[in-house]
Amino acid sequence: MASEYRLLSYRDAKGDHAGVLVGDRVYPAADLLKGSGVDASSVLAILQSWAKAHRALGGAASRVKPKDGKPLAKVKLLAPVLYPGGLFCAGANYWDHMEEMAKAQGNTVDRSKRPSEPWFFLKTSAHSVIGPGAPAHLPENSRQVDWEAELGVVIGKPARNVSVARALDYVAGYTIVNDLSARDLMTRKDRPPVMTYDWVGQKCFEDAAPMGPWIVPAASVKDVGNLSVKLWVNGVLKQNSNTNQLIHNVPEQIAYLSEHVTLRPGDVIATGTPAGVGMPRGEFLKKGDVVKIEIEGVGTLINKMA
User: Fold this and answer.
1) Tens of pLDDT along 9-63?
2) Rounded to an integer, what distance in angstroms lies between the CA atom of residue 124 and that of residue 83?
3) Residue 1: inside a domain
4) How far are the Cα atoms of 218, 220, 302 from residue 297, in angstroms, in the given order?
5) Are both 191 and 118 inside the same structural domain?
6) What is the pTM of this model?
7) Which domain holds residue 255?
8) Rounded-to-integer distance, Cα 208 and Cα 223, Å
9) Which of 177, 203, 238, 286 could form a disulfide with 152 if both were Cys (CB 3.0 to 4.6 A apart)?
């Protein structure tokens, strides 16, 4: 009988490895996948053969012995995917977030007028992704870095022109992404109107995408459309919402992206952030701040600003 597990990346004296969390102990993925024919050299490699790997890991997880694993507390976790080939980020994709941003500008949002399609930008991967517990260095040229708790969707097989109805078949699992945003670098006043937004400046700085702590297999998440999403800064609750507030749900986002590109194993979709970001209140992160994100059934991601 298969057991529940989490897929992760970790570092020890010998280098970086793919690991499997069962209970509160971490096991080398290479040991659990031995003889399966799956390349276990990294999480990204495992995702290339996800269907086979998931079956093998579920079975192996039911047979592990605690003495063969390391306590989670003694393992240095890295971002679970090192590194996504594509990190696609949904913008303005929670109703409550749209409403708070509109209110700050003196406007309102009519929920009966849903945008016809999701809207995305790209975030740099190896340049920006860091793992749980890693210090997130604030960019020196910004004084308005904001937090954004987001559910991350990890793709498990190539997806091209897939239907909304079948979209979740292409998901390996879920993780957490903090889409850090430099709000004072959002626009370029010296450019023509069509080039106003500076997506590199505001979204793609070093350490701008904390991710983790692991990947929860999709089969272990009962309803991705009904997960609580919470974020704290220094213990103060700032974001408290649910994925049922998504304007375009997870299947719709996958289907839309697959119309434009072939989503590949290991790609990550950050599905948008809910209400509670700092910008409408003029609150921004500073050195020493601790950001904690919890998504129901997925885990907890903590990073300290440096």
Assistant:
1) 999 999 999 999 999 999 999 999 999 999 999 999 999 999 999 999 999 999 9
2) 10
3) no
4) 10, 8, 16
5) yes
6) 0.96
7) 87-304
8) 28
9) 177
